[in-house]
Here is the input.
Amino acid sequence: MNWHLRLPSKQYYLLTQEIGSFRKPEYLSRKFRSLDENELNELASKATFETIELYEKAGLDNIGVGGEMFRWEMYEHPIRRLDGIIVHGPVRSFDNRYYNKGSVVNKLRRIKSFHMEEIQLLKKLKKKNIKIPITGPYTLMDWSFNEYYRDRYELAMEFGKIVNQEIRELKEFWGDDLLQIQIDEPAATTHPAEMTTVLDSINESVRDINGIEVHLHVCYSIDYGLLFKIVPDLKVDYYNLEFANRDSLNLNADRIGYADVKRFKDAMDVTSRKIGLGLGVTDVHIDDIETVDLIMNRIEYALKFIEPDRLRINPDCGLRTRSREVGYNKLKNMVDATREVLKNL
Amino acid sequence: MITEEKDQFYKMMRVNKVDYYTDPLFNWQDIFRPLVASIDGISLGPLTRYFETNTFYRKPIVNEIGNVKNSLDVDGSEYNIPGPVYKPNEFDGYMTFLPGIGTFYSLSQVNMDFKKFQDGMIEVYSQLLKIMGTDKVFFYEEVPKDAEVYGSFSQRVFLRISLNSKNSHINSLKVYSLITEDPYLSSKYSNLPGYFALDSTSTKLENDLPGELKRFVDDFPELLITHNNYLDFLPRKIADKKVELLGGVA
Here is the structure.
């Protein structure tokens, strides 16, 4: 059920959204790991308010969960709430950034909700325009050492069941209103031979849950074509993808980073489900603030292929690696560029 | 801090009687970054997934291959490395780490054909090894487009190739040590055959390593045993235990 897509009114043209994470204020990040549950709840709530204020000041249509202030990072947060997985220590992800990679050593069991605190806070604040990012089952599998399940497929499906439990619980709490869920699968196209595992585990995550709009976020893919091939079978409404990272900052360059928009359109045309694209227009791994003109150019390029009611505008990925100031300026220019484009639609 | 950590690492190698080792690359953001920073004509491109892993690198953009810059102490900005990048090391077992030329070519955006790229890289690698003054070099090669070329270096060459890589093929080759999954094949092309005895993609420990290696005792008077990929893919605590296992075999 996707009422945004079924009402192609101008108010649903080019909605702006964030992708998930945002840099934590220092009062939270410095102490994050040493805080007890109450302290963390208090400081993370404060940081969420402040981040939502920033988002609203920038003019975002969708505020996500206010920057994932309750989460240290996207992998460790859920696996610390599971039984059957142990963490030996950090491994490198990129540059000099590390994450705590878990080893699955027993049957997995969810012992605590991953994101209930966030949705409770957002409901209390009466925020409706939210989107909850949840780390996807394939990525949870791919980023873990498997030392218990028969194979990677079986482990991914187990994670799929767990993510399904989580989404179901969040939806029950949220009530009748449509709830946007973003399944984060940065690993989705890492192993070309495992796309069936990607497909089945994501579908398992949302199986038989009504009243949700399902977004899938994939980034830094070697080949989005692998993803586009399974689009007709995926139970996903929006695909929020990274493009700016692979594009030039030069306004007059060919929009080489956006070549896959056309391929996405081809995938749209062969699927019976009404789907849309979340277009990454700012690179989250550089401090350069993309100009309004450049972002407009990128959006206008995408509009050659995708109708405006099926196109949403977002950064490539979460902005947590940028300073809050840089992150805000990127979002502000993104919103300003979108509004300029909207004037001509 | 980096120097201190590296010193600890070298000490661990000596304590565990590991015969050969490279820089631990603690301050390398990825295997190309220091080279991009120290070779004229190469610049940083987009963040890109490193093979089928959850690690990323900045894709090198190679417009030309110039000389190695005089100072290898590149700046410590966000996109570069807190120096020193290549630091001469006095220990006997030390090997200079370099990404394989085929790997470098395949994972970069290169505006020239492979032959020209290869010739250029041999030249800059030779310059770099001369500056380093080391007599042993370790090439990490995932895509050996022309492995024969490694015979042209005057240093003692240790070449790591994964035969599982779909791109791996060896026609003719002679290096000091070829390290693969198959020590019998390694012995055909090198004096000191090398074997991936430890799995750097699993936190399971190979506690029966000596037992597992007994099958090779009659066939190889000398066998270099190592891990199949960077230990960076493992939590440090497990990686250290695997190093101890290597030492235990000795």
